[in-house]
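Shipment paperwork, digital attachment
Item: protein structure file
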Amino acid sequence: MPNRNRRRSAVGCAALAALLTAPVLLAAPASATTTTPVIDFNGDGFADLAISAPDATVSGVGDAGYLSVVYGSSAGADTKHSQLITRAAEGVPGDVMEYDYFGSWTAARDLDGDGYTDLVVGGYHTPVVLWGSPQGLRGGAALAGTTYQVGAGDINGDGHADLVANVGGSLEVRFGPFTRAGVPASTDTLAFAEEDGPQDFTVGDVTGDGKDDVVTQHGFEEMQHKSRLWKGTSTGLSKTFQSSGYYTVGGVIADVNKDGYGDFIARQVDQVSEMMEYDAGDIRVVYGSASGFSTRTSKINQDTAGVPGVGEAGDDNADYGDQFGYSLAAGDVTGDGYPDIAVGVPGEDIGSIREAGAVVLLKGGASGLTGTGAQAFSQSTSGVPGASEKGDHFGAAVLLADVNANHRADLAVGTPQEDGTYQDSGAAWLLRGSKNGLTTTNIASFGPGTLNAPQKGSRFGTGFAR
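Attachment content:
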């Protein structure tokens, strides 16, 4: 197992520092589009959640990993009819293996064009695609090749969903539609020099031409490189790039000012990546245009007017920074047509409770993304179940999805280091969207025990499929 990659997983280590000092292969969101697609495995119109627990013991095998699928409904998350997906489940190719970390990375799109969202799942062994159906995810196929991360979109603008795969040193675009054997219609490869391969990438339409673009993040040894935009074309990704001008990790693409162009929102970091664990945290917004990245940018952090809290950096005495922007998600919470951005702050201290974690919602609008009307939530917020505890890292993963189909995105929060019956069993929260923003009314909170899934050390809530 490649330790250098594993260190970046949000569930691989107890200390947040270890999550942030290596390439961003497994933790940060991998893709978003200007109009966020609905992940609907059973086609009932309600967004579904696929929640990763890659450290779980499955069938007595340690660190095998699983996902729990919680289907949406008019009442919200239907935790009574969840689905457990492991390599031992019926129709899932492959065998349960130690150190597989199945579910470490995912991508969800309708790959075969039948109207149901499909789910690509990987770990350290053969990735698989699971097919959507009226009954939910049923059956699957192994995907060829070694893949370390995937994102999804429509790179060539032909109306079929494509996969973008980090295959180690290159990006491979696998064009849809896919056959039920998991075979793409064709492929195209964007190669990089050995020391310059992408750590992470984000998929979305920056130029507004109906073809999704890819923004890659890079680094070598302990030094980051500036992120790069590769435009989608009718034949695949362009072979030349445009620099964002900033060192970033992770990210989403969403049209936060509704001008028709996707804007790139990512965590901005220093050039020296080993310092990331001490960051108070900033996010950088690079606005899109017909030609790609525009010259309009902005930086937002907890010292920005309207944003709750205060940015706090760490030090070398094992006091880690807030990590504002560690996780990001896009979706329209208020129903006003402007995408909003959920920002995970897993290193946030709540009072004297170190690294309890929080989530901030930034609202999109005609002026773009600002701190106006921003909201913050933690386990100490009135109405939020649970209690803030040291090292919970509430907000290590976030997702915005309209689970109850009321045209307002709901916020799912993953907290893989939440203690339940067992240490680090993990948990998830779902806050409802409303015309005024997020609300704790009818909030849901659940962990693996609620879903009859493996609990001990599973780190449930490491990530959400998107």
